Amino acid sequence: MPVREEVVSWLEEGKADLRHARRSLEIGDYNWACFAAQQAAEKALKSYILHVEGEFVRGHDLLALYRRAAKAGGITLKEASLSRLSVYYTVARYPNAGMERPSTGITKEQAEEAVATAEGVIFEVEKALGDP
Fold first, then answer.
1. pTM above the 0.85 mark?
2. Which residue, of 5, 19, 60, 128, has the greatest Cβ tally within 10 A?
3. Whole domain around residue 58: which residue ranges?
4. Phi, psi at residue 122, to the nearest 5°?
5. Domains held by the chain: number
6. How do residues 12-23 score in pLDDT, each as one tens digit?
């Protein structure tokens, strides 16, 4: 099946978010690395769902997005890693969403795991799409 331009756009924006996550990790902005990694994975999963289902899906829960995408086959990811990454959609940005100060409470190790998980999501989606 040919890959539509809209699918490529979502995937490319996910890759841009992954670059931002890596840069944030390098400079020690661990909460922003986690949030950008979550966004990278979300956009990549949405690109795959758009590709296989032909329609845009809403929502930010990476586990729910993955389970929907996995129905079509072609991608395999660790659900536990996606669950941990998914919470950064809010926890990494808001002082009342789980920790008082995400800018100082999120660790380098958490950010490294988040970035690695997002890299895995993008790798799997690119592989399934034939690396558009």
1. yes
2. 128
3. 5-129
4. -65, -40
5. 1
6. 999 999 999 999
